[in-house]
TrEMBL record:
Sorted UniProt keywords: Glycogen biosynthesis, Nucleotidyltransferase, Transferase
Name recorded for this polypeptide: Glucose-1-phosphate adenylyltransferase subunit GlgD
Domain called Nucleotidyl transferase: residue spans: 19-154
Gene3D superfamilies in the record: Hexapeptide repeat proteins, Spore Coat Polysaccharide Biosynthesis Protein SpsA, Chain A
EC number: 2.7.7.27
Domain (Glucose-1-phosphate adenylyltransferase/Bifunctional protein GlmU-like C-terminal hexapeptide): residue spans on this chain: 284-354
GO molecular function list: glucose-1-phosphate adenylyltransferase activity
Database matches in Pfam families: Hexapep_GlmU (PF24894), NTP_transferase (PF00483)
Protein family (similarity comment): Belongs to the bacterial/plant glucose-1-phosphate adenylyltransferase family.
Cited InterPro entries: ADP-Glc_PPase, GlgDAde_trans, GlmU/GlgC-like_hexapep, NTP_transferase_dom, Nucleotide-diphossugar_trans, Trimer_LpxA-like_sf
Listed GO biological process terms: glycogen biosynthetic process
UniProt signal peptide: none
Amino acid sequence: MDRIAGIINLDHEHDVLEELTYFRCGAAVPFAGRYRMIDFILSNMTNSRIVTVALFTRRKYRSLMDHLEQGKAWDLDRTRGGLFILPPDWNDPTDISRGDLQHFHNNFDFVHRALADYILVTGSQNICNIDFQEVLAEHKEAKADVTVVYKKVDELYPEHQLSHKLTIDDQQRVSAIHNERSEKNVYMDIFLVKKELICDMIEDCIAHGNAHFFLDAIKAKHSSLHIHAYEYKGMHALVNSIESYYRNSAKLLDADVHDQLFKQDAPILTKVKNEAPSKYLPDSHVSNTLVANGCVIDGHVENSILFRGVRIGEGAVIKDSIIMQRCDIARNAHLENVILDKDCRISEGQTLIGATKKPYVVPKRKVI
């Protein structure tokens, strides 16, 4: 059986989630009540029997390392293969590379020595539940050089504007990679390539002074490569702004959307934290809300997401909001269209109201 090694490349992902990325990179941002953004792509890999995964990261990765540890939650704490967190090596005197090619250059040994026939390269901003073994099967059947994964979206949102789009022919071959705003074939920042070919691509890019692997090795040379397009048809969310984070989080309150992402046969895994079940006091009222464990609720909560250990005081009202881990909301506070980062405290009687397209965001550990 052909083996795949994974690379999660965070180098070109900017910290665009405003207050939520003050103290962490985007991949470490909490999402969906219990998880971090990186949990989704990492779980997709391990569910697809990928047991060797490298993480290319450059900045604000302390929170990410604390969350991932040795990869135990994803069965990646292994003696052969496993999880490799690889920041760039700034001390290589032979390094002439730039951009994310610094990672590919300085960690070339990972690619070259990986016990794999194929290399899968992804980012962390595309939330999905995908079987990469199906991508591999289609890649081999098409006899492609590179297979890219895309989602044909029903509606284009602001977060899709900067995404690459694909023009695809009747044989699912990519004829153009571009940024046309009207194109609905959205590239999901995922591609698969044979190990020998990616090694050649890396060396060629560095020799020519390139700075971005996908742009310079694949997009710029698409006419000389057989690039196959794999269509992903499941639940998909691109999170690259506060607006997209808030809107796509709210979509998970729809049971059908939630079940598409959180499949029983392909679970999304995360770091285990053993806490007591949530406690609903007699006067509490909770509707259409995701509630993680360890919460104590004595107020009114609707259309919201509560992370672990949240405390809602008597008479408090929470609507259309995302309340992250260990936040404490005192009596008679009123929050609507609000995102609270971890460990925030809202005092008695305070009112915070944002807008649907511009939620009120409170940074980590803030006291109001």
